[in-house]
Amino acid sequence: MSVHSSSPVRVLLALAGMLAAFLLPTGPAHASAPLRTHAAAKGKFIGAALATSPLANETAYRNIAATEFSQVTAENAMKWESTEPSQGQFNFSGADAIVNFATQNNQQVHGHTLVWHNQTPGWVQGLSATAMRSAMQNHISQVVGHYADNPTVVSWDVVNEVFDDSGNLRTSFWYNTLGQSYIADAFRAARAADPDARLCINDYNTEGINAKSTAIYNLVSSLRQQGVPVDCVGFQTHLAIQYGFPNDFQQNLQRFAALGVQVRITELDVRMATPRDATKDATQATYYRNVVNACLAVTACAGVTIWGFTDKYSWVPDTFPGQGAALIYDESYQQKPSYTAVHDALAGGTTTDPTPPTTPGTPSASNVTSNSASLTWTASTDSGGSGLAGYDVYREQGATDQLLGQSTTNSISLTGLSPSTQYQVYVRARDGAGNVSANSALGTFTTTDGPGGGGGCTAAGTVQTQWATGYVIQPVTVTNTGTSGITGWTVTFTLPAGHTLTGSWNATLTVSGQTVTAKNLAYNGNLAPNAGTTFGFQVSRPSGNTQTPSGYTCA
Ligand code: XIL
Question: pTM for the full model?
Answer without folding.
Answer: 0.64
